[in-house]
Amino acid sequence: ITLTKPRIMSLLLLTGAAGMFVGAGGWPNGWEFLAMMAGLALACGGSSALNHVMDADIDKLMGERTAARPVASGRVAAPRALEFGVVLMALSFAVLATTVNVLTAALALVGSAATAGGPVQADLEAEIVCPTCKTTLDQSSSPIAMRMKDYIRAQIAAGDSAAEIKAQLVDQFGPAVLAEPPTKDLHLGQR
């Protein structure tokens, strides 16, 4: 279950449900609503599982919270997580195409594939500290935090990995920018 990132999924489902109510101008058809929620859950779960695979290397290095994730910790093998994510996304397409419509299925597939790295933004914002207010970016609305969020978004869009983005931010702001600075290979007091 952890591979599907249930907390992130719940936000997507809430947003999707709200969109269905607005689109229907009231209560949507019950079966279509259930099919849509199931399809969205499968798409989000698949995307999140792929994200675990893509970020496994950096998750191992970034502290206890991320190192304990299923793929990073080795509890789930990366190929199995990849298969799981692809199967969930395929099931999402099948459910949505047969019960809602093909356009919805295609948009969910493209969106989940494109945002497999989307949770990377949220993860980075929870792991990077604003240099001015000393809180993580996800908790800060300072001007520098907003610029850092924009920078992270742009670097993800340019194809940089989470590890590369963190390294760039550490180069610019120093290791204190990491909420959980690495403790490996530190030689305090030695030059």
Evaluate the radius of gyration: 19 Å
Structural class: mainly alpha
- Report mean pLDDT, rounded to a whole number: 83
What is the straight-line distance between the termini?
45 Å
Brief synopsis:
This protein has 191 residues and is an all-alpha fold. The protein has helices spanning 6-24, 30-54, 56-61, 64-67, 70-73, 78-99, 102-114, 118-127, 143-157, 162-173.
Secondary structure layout:
Elements: H1 6-24, H2 30-54, H3 56-61, H4 64-67, H5 70-73, H6 78-99, H7 102-114, H8 118-127, H9 143-157, H10 162-173
Helix pairs in contact: 1-2, 2-6, 2-7, 6-7, 8-9
How would you describe this protein?
The chain is 68% helix and 0% strand. It is an all-alpha fold and 191 residues long. Residues 185-191 have low confidence and may be disordered.
Features:
mainly alpha, single chain, globular
